[in-house]
Automatic annotation (TrEMBL), chain A:
Domain 4Fe-4S ferredoxin-type stretches: 301-331
Keywords of the record: 4Fe-4S, Electron transport, Iron, Iron-sulfur, Metal-binding, Repeat, Transport
One Gene Ontology molecular-function label: 4 iron, 4 sulfur cluster binding
Protein name from the UniProt record: (4Fe-4S) cluster-containing protein
Amino acid sequence: MKNNSINFKRQVTIKLADVKLQSALSRLQSRFVEGRAAVISEISDFEETRTAAAAIRDRVLNDLEHWLMHFEQQATARGAIVHWAETGADVNRIVAEIAVQHGVRTAAKSKSMVSEECGLNDALELAGVTVMETDLGEYILQLAHEAPSHIVAPVVHKNKEEISDLFAEKHQLPRKTGIAELCREAREILRPAFLNADMGISGANFLVAETGSALIVTNEGNGRLVTTLPRVHVAITGIEKVVPTLEDVTTLLRLLPRSATGQSITNYVSVLTGNKNKDDHDGPEHFHIILLDNGRSSLVGSEMQEMLRCIRCGACMNHCPVYQNIGGHAYGWVYPGPMGSILTPLLGGLEKSPDLPNASTLCGACAVVCPVKIPLPDLLRKLREKQMERGMKSRRETFMLKAWAWLALHPPVYALATKFGVRAMSLLGGKNKLLHTLPGASGWTDGRDFPAPEGLTFREIYQRRNRQ
Amino acid sequence: MRVGFFVTCLVDSMRPRIGFAAIRLLEAAGCEVIVPEQQTCCGQPGYNSGDRKSAKAMALKFLAEFEAFDYVVLPSGSCAGMIRVHYPDLCKDDPALLARCIAVGARTFELTDFLANIAKLKKMPGTFQGALTYHDSCSGLRELDVYKQPRALLASMPGVAINEMVESTTCCGFGGTFSVKYGELSTRMADNKCQHIAATHAGTIVGGDLGCLLNIEGRLRRNGDSTTRVMHIAEVLAGTEK
């Protein structure tokens, strides 16, 4: 997927004015924030579980090569074929080659954000393979030619009426309005796609090293159909998703659905191990697992490694006051919200996403809810430090920061500067004690007045009183 | 106990009365309050903008000025959080310095946290009649666990009724330089906060961080609300000066 995060600021303006989007986003709070809060209370040792989950992820990341090799060995021993992809283009090439090898004409796909990184659907279409998204949200987006705006609820930016219109137009059927009717219509169209597909494409929430399994958590059942019905199954995921044991996965699974959708458990948890043996009743004849790097390995051992703990639950964006007001598309690439504001610059280049690390108040709501305790605000700040070190900040900002620091380190000058500064601002505030414009700070005064200072600084008054 | 009072740069220049209110509260709690005269800024603006070097210089300045006190108190959760949580990060490469940061950090408190948990102030010097609503500023809440302390202090005042707003713990959109760099976004977040405040019909919005209060007040006034009072919690607890 093309990285459009350079246009973040322009997108913010558009998204804040988008009435439909704003109404759709207003539902995030009740659906995800309150849903999560209600369901985490089921776990009496929730904080300890978070700590344990973070430790499991760190154990893997501190020895990633070992666990990946172990995974490959176990997966291969059970009949899967493991492929290593350095870039998204490599993933696309590998999937296209598998398609040619097995004479694949059509593919049914369950949700995979990693495939969005690669732009897989477009690449497969070019290679002559018809791809059908089967996750309801992703199917809607495929019809609308739009990208997901959330990693768990990809179509959260659309309301029901838009989907009714879209289905009526694309399916050429009478317009339905009820959710059940709309789902039934989608199901009737998707069912033959599952049955006719030569290839099933899925992601993987976790890779289990001890069994060589790919594990997916889904709610609609499409994931299970896609991974078992077609004769070829291709699972695509990032190299960081490996977990040592099934026991470790159970710890992570206590947190993932609760953090993501406010569910104690998802409707389906599928552990996909090896290809179909002669005694098996179902399963794919060929099972390929493609592991994408795309910059991830460069984070191992760096000060940004904690980002690789991420299990893609989306809680950080659900709780982010910035995401809640602009939605996911404004971020310009696959991953939105706080995790995206870190991953996009790390995987796609800091110079292409200058705003993302800065467009946060560092309020910390994301870090509090992250199930694997990623210190997201600290990582955002580290990216800001990199921008500073590499001279990527504007000259104006750098000057302001240096000037402020110099003043703060020279108290007598500081006292003088603030003394005259606050007097001037106080006078400008007039009798309402409000400044309607402030030179150099239109970002503030375009939408807010600036309350005027009292007129004397604390230190002036304090010194005066002490003298008396 | 000898308390070093860190006024904070924002209170120093914008609202001195908050600083004096805080001192009255500390004195009411039996503290000897000292205000080091060379103090300026805790370094947070630079730190959060990626300017680690100057932030560290300010951390060293702070250590030199405040290390000697029994306690350090600030009328701001974000500046107290800077000292307690982030100074150790700035000094992590120097073990001796790190130890000093951690030691002074452990004695550094946000005002209401100090009054409620350390000084255990029972009777507030001020009086307040009516309903108010409390906004939880992010750093105090999430870095220092300041949530119950201001509410307990306010509840101890006979005339006060606390009307809780929805999402009191959601960021108001201030975020330091964020409020200027991403003005539109910041304004929208402030607007959401203003709506939640209005829905309480409290008439007074109280908080513990001046940055957030200026942001909220700025949006209220621009929206034409000239009556909702915006007060720092120190002003409420200490009352107005005679």
